[in-house]
Write a structure and sequence with these properties.
Helix content of chain A: 25-40%
Order of helices and strands of chain B: EEEEEH
Structural class of chain B: alpha+beta
Strand order of the largest sheet of chain A: 2-1-5-4-3-6-7
Strand content of chain B: 25-35%
Distance between the termini of chain A: 68 Å
Distance between the termini of chain B: 19 Å
Number of strands of chain A: 20
Strand content of chain A: 15-25%
Mean pLDDT of chain A: 96
Number of helices of chain A: 12
Mean pLDDT of chain B: 93
Largest sheet of chain A: 7 strands, antiparallel
Oligomer: heterodimer
Largest interface: A-B, 24 and 18 residues
Radius of gyration of chain B: 12 Å
Strand order of the largest sheet of chain B: 1-4-5
Largest sheet of chain B: 3 strands, antiparallel
Low-confidence stretches of chain A: 574-578
Low-confidence stretches of chain B: none
Number of strands of chain B: 5
């Protein structure tokens, strides 16, 4: 005997909340049971439910960078291997960026959900696994020239086959990751989330019946499509273009260009990246789903910033993407792509918003810091004797808008992640945090100032630690918008123990790029200091409220010298960190 | 859709690791492609909707695509 669920507006609301709460509970399982700080502190993962054809039904989208990937990994797996590939009790893992994933560290796990031998849905979970082998500790080789240097690539393969461990696959994976214990724990956290998702969806189906849930999920998707089309229809038709240069690819010092034309026609949007540079040698290439995630992100910022429309596949239908194969926004195998997700994607979002500023000036922001400021490190922990590895990132500034200043110390717009608390960080890794704070004068001047970047200084507390970094927005600072000015860019420096000053990594170690390097060994007492990038300013700085300039100086956000220089505003001199 | 459009199935062995991208939108083409006459030869794309995208936007914006 099932309960009645009438699929009117109230019933659909009840169903949407029920499905969304399942994905939220899945996310809690991930957070509470994972071994790695990137999951239980950083929240670099997403949990979802999808229908049997790969349509997204509900999500707890901690990381919007995965929006384009999640439905496509499932749909393309179905298309490539067929529905018959999936059996009850299976868990499939997949991190192939050429088959729908964002980049190699992102692992999608999918669990088919059956009722009476009929496939009815998938529980899904995508997360950034902190160590997957490859040439760099932390699997983030900023100088990689092909995907084989970036770690172990898995096409869709089964971790569990009809409820049993597929031990052969596990053995291959664990033998190729530097921290197999963490992989074991994190994979099981993901599998636990899928199991909870399956259990809760089955309970919902038991309560209301399969046909009702299926029809309701379809209605929710159609509803979201109608709502998003209505929002797009409100925007003025037209073609809106923008272009940007990205400073380098990690292997060569050459900048590359990305162009986009956003076409709004009625109730649909086309984002056309034709004319962008060809794929580059280093790992700043994006794969198709990364470009797609950036487009969805920017479109949702414009059309539904308060997230009132249920996020499911219906939201994706009115959005069409043209990402030329072989270009830097849709690289082809075996191009490296780890930084395309973390560092090109946020800039693609900035670029799309810049283009759409002409259509919706009140809904956009100036450029963000635009880099995840990726810092990877690993080694043997002096207290445990165990090998460890960590992927670390910090907040940057977001851009000013028509109505407000940018946010300070926020992780990139596409990641929505948290940094790791210093107490946890120091407990887990042999690094001492000497300081951490907001960078004065890092926000781009404007009527509405860009948000402030962050700085951090770390001292090595082990005999040696191997570091890699992929920082961007160092040579080309985040631009302002509508007359606003650019912000202060990022940098990363090192001071060897006993030396008096901090210097660039290329000066000390001879690496090709001062901010994108791989496997540099620092020793006990060495210090690493970095600064993320601030957000661009919005509107002419001279139009900024004088009182706000004075408050910025009092708060230490802007120095007295910068207030005079950028805002022509003589104010009280108050000290602060530069 | 055009009257001459049709689905073409690919016979890919399980050990084939390469993938093909749609020349219009860039998405993956895996087991089957939608083939139609683009005006300068037949074009294989990821689905019928890409033929519509080609006719309504791609061709006016970028010109006729030479078929494979």
């Amino acid at each position: 005997m099932t309960d009645e669920l009438k699929l009117d507006s109230v019933g659909l609301h009840v169903l949407h909340n029920a499905l969304a709460n399942i994905t939220a509970e899945m996310a809690l399982v991930m957070m509470k049971t994972a071994y790695s700080t990137i999951f239980n502190e950083g929240l670099d993962f997403s949990t979802v439910l999808l229908d049997r054809t790969g349509n997204l039904i509900a999500e707890k989208n901690y990381t919007p960078s995965m929006m384009g990937a999640i439905p496509n990994t499932v749909r393309w797996t179905l298309e490539e291997l067929g529905e018959e590939f999936f059996q009850p009790g299976d868990v499939v893992v997949h991190n192939d960026p050429y088959r729908g994933n964002c980049h190699m560290p992102e692992h999608m796990m999918m669990k088919p959900i059956f009722r009476d031998d009929e496939l009815i849905a998938f529980a899904g979970c995508m997360g950034h696994v902190a160590e997957i082998g490859g040439k760099a500790v932390g699997s983030f080789a900023a100088d990689a020239t092909d995907c084989y240097q970036e770690g172990l690539r898995l096409p869709p393969v089964k971790l569990f086959e009809q409820g049993r461990y597929n031990e052969q696959v596990w053995r291959i994976i664990l033998a190729n990751h530097r921290t197999p214990r963490n992989t074991w724990g994190d994979f099981h956290a993901m599998i636990g989330a899928l199991t909870v998702g399956e259990r809760r969806l089955m309970a919902l189906i038991d309560r209301y019946d399969t046909a009702i849930i299926r029809e309701g999920a379809g209605s929710l998707i159609d509803y979201s499509e109608r709502r998003l089309r209505a929002e797009i229809d409100e925007l003025p038709d037209g073609e809106y273009s923008a272009a940007m240069w990205v400073e380098d690819d990690g292997v060569t010092a050459d900048p590359f260009e990305v162009k986009v034309k956003v076409v709004i026609r009625g109730d649909e949007i086309i984002a056309d990246f034709t004319g962008s540079s060809g794929q580059v040698k280093g790992p700043m290439n994006a794969v198709y789903v990364v470009a797609a995630s950036a487009v969805y992100n920017a479109v949702f910022c414009i059309t539904d910033p308060m997230m009132l429309i249920p996020r499911n596949s219906g939201c994706y239908r009115p959005v069409r993407i043209i990402a030329p194969p072989g270009s830097v926004v849709n690289c082809k195998h075996p191009a490296p792509s780890v930084g395309g997700n973390t560092d090109l994607q946020p800039k693609l979002i900035d670029l799309l918003l810049e283009a759409m500023a002409k259509a919706a000036p009140d809904k956009v922001a100036a450029a963000t810091g635009g880099s995840s400021s990726n810092l990877l490190f690993g080694g043997v922990h002096p207290e445990t004797g165990q090998f460890y590895s960590n992927y670390h990132y910090d907040g940057m500034g977001t851009g000013g808008t028509l109505s407000k200043d940018g946010n300070d110390a926020e992780t990139t717009r596409h990641s929505n992640c948290r940094n790791t608390p210093i107490e946890v960080f120091e407990h887990r890794y042999p690094l001492l945090t000497l300081d951490h704070g907001l960078v004065q004068d890092s926000g781009g001047p404007g009527r509405h100032r860009g948000g402030l970047a962050t700085y951090r200084t770390l001292r090595v507390m082990a005999d040696e630690i191997t570091f890699s970094a992929l920082f961007d927005r160092c040579k080309i600072a985040p631009p302002g918008l509508a007359g606003g000015k650019e912000s202060k860019g990022a940098e990363i420096l090192v001071r060897r123990a006993g030396e008096p000053e901090y210097r660039r990594f290329d000066q000390v170690f001879g690496v090709a790029s001062p901010t994108k390097f791989t496997n540099v060994v620092l020793r006990r007492g060495d210090e690493l200091r970095y600064r993320t990038a601030g957000g661009g300013g919005y509107g002419p700085p001279e139009e900024r409220d004088r009182e706000l300039v004075a408050l910025d100086v009092l708060d230490g956000y802007v120095s007295a010298q910068a207030a005079e220089r950028d805002y022509a505003a003589p104010v009280l001199p108050i000290g602060g960190r530069s | 859709m055009s009257a001459g459009g049709l689905w073409i199935a690919f016979d890919r062995p399980w050990h084939e690791t390469s993938v093909v991208n749609c020349p219009i939108c860039g998405r993956l083409i895996l087991r089957q492609a939608w083939e139609f006459d683009g005006g300068a030869g037949r074009i294989q794309v990821c689905g019928e909707s890409c033929e519509e995208l080609y006719e309504s936007y791609w061709k006016p914006a970028h010109g006729t695509m030479v078929g494979q």
